[in-house]
Amino acid sequence: MPKSTNQKQKLLYIEDFLRHHTDETHSVTVPEIIDYLASNGIKAERKSIYNDIQTLCDFGLDIVHGVGPGNGYRLAEREFELPEVKLLVDLVQSSKFITAKKSRELIRKLEGLVSENDARKLQRQVIVTDRNKTANEKIYYSVDVIYSAIAENKQIRFHYFDWDVHKQMKLRKDGAFYEVSPWLLTWDDENYYLVAYDSDAGLMKHYRVDKMLDIGLTGNNRDGRETFEQINVAAYAKKTFGMFAGEEKTVQLLCDNSMTGVIIDRFGSDVALRPYDETHVLARADIAVSPQFFGWLAGLSDKVQIFSPESVAHDYQRYLQDILSSYRKEI
Q: For the segment 92-107, what is each residue's pLDDT rounded down to a tens digit?
């Protein structure tokens, strides 16, 4: 049989057909493979299909042939299994820093990792319209620029904005550029943050990546290496709340026994814990003391109290009193 013009692409078409049309509950027969090849301008005989499938197996694809008449071939193992892709879809949907438009684009790409039948299952779980998403479509390019700056040891500059009461972007510093040395991108409280060294202030600062605009590299090399190398990156997010900086102190928390899991979830399994009495444990952790830390603590009601240092306990009392005094109506 004379070879068709697309004959060199035959193996690729067979792999593509198996990848998109087979899964644990769906297989394809040799006649179906031949028809698919013919629809793409490739002539094939049954015997050549058997040889091609064996070649794909020799290459490393896990292709299974069902037992009995009518049973066909299916791709048994993929780079990502359906439960793994479902997990990735959930992460994309729940991520606030990914816009609704980009979420749909990413999910469509994730659907390409599974069969068409399994992709329809994914589509049924996709709901992104009403989720709390960022409006900054350029965040992905900002992340790319930041990684490039880190790799090239360069400073970056950018505009930084807040939202005003009219839901409009308002640039900070009257529209002047921020210029910093990027050292770390981290994830905290469902947001992407840049940890960078501010040479003018002489310290590390945090910036929400979705609030950065017009980002670009400068010609200056980064500063702050010694300061960054003193940071324990693994423990960094545990001691900062909402990525708001504060004076770092060793704080002891008197916790109801029922709060043990909450403390471990917040500070990690290596947090220092010891029994205090029959109903309480004493936890010790290094914490960047800030209003955000006090807000987290207030959410735990009287189940967790600041045991020491006394100065932090007094600051927390003032924090609560200021909130109470802001309500003029007595309850």
A: 877 776 777 788 888 8
C-alpha to C-alpha distances, 242 to 54, 70, 173, 268, 303, nearest whole angstrom: 54, 58, 22, 16, 21
Answer yes or no: are the C-beta atoms of 96 and 133 closer than 8 Å: yes
CB neighbourhood size of 156 (10 A) = 25
Record the pTM: 0.56
Q: Please give the Cα distance from 107 to 74 (Å, whole number).
A: 24
